[in-house]
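Backbone-to-sequence.
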């Protein structure tokens, strides 16, 4: 069984790792942030970064029964804009976690999607997906930084243990 306190801690660690990455990205020239690297699904560091936060925003909104509109990378022309987006999305997740209980976190819930689709999952599984998804794309951003000639420092969880 997952606990709200445990999930809060994992969420905090994930965003602390993302903050380290954003701090590194703030040292890159703007043209590196927006340079196309065609071997990645999201072809710029900017697009990868915005995708991380859009995913969290989408899934937390689904858990709350709310709508969510993906934000475009063009809405975040500078790293400082992505930092603000991270804060907004992270705050929404913290608010959601403050409004749920351990029991609710572990109880199957019907999720309703904008296209009319439905699924049954526990909120714990959804939040787990959000956090592992963030690390997947954080790793892609780190690889992109290497390819751009700006290797990132260690941004993994072992920084916070």
């Amino acid at each position: 069984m997952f606990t709200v306190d445990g999930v809060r801690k994992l969420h905090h660690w994930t965003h602390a790792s993302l903050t380290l990455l954003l701090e590194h990205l703030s040292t890159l020239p703007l043209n590196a942030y927006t340079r196309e690297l065609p071997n990645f699904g999201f072809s710029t560091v900017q697009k990868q970064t915005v995708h991380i936060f859009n995913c969290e925003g989408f899934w937390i909104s689904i858990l709350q029964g709310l709508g969510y509109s993906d934000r475009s990378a063009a809405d975040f022309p500078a790293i400082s804009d992505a930092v603000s987006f991270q804060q907004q999305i992270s705050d929404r997740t913290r608010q959601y976690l403050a409004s749920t209980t351990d029991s609710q976190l572990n109880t199957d819930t019907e999720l309703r999607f904008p296209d009319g689709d439905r699924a049954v999952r526990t909120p714990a599984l959804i939040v787990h997906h959000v956090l592992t998804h963030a690390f997947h794309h954080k790793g892609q951003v780190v690889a992109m930084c290497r390819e751009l000639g700006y290797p990132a420092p260690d941004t993994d969880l072992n920084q916070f243990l």
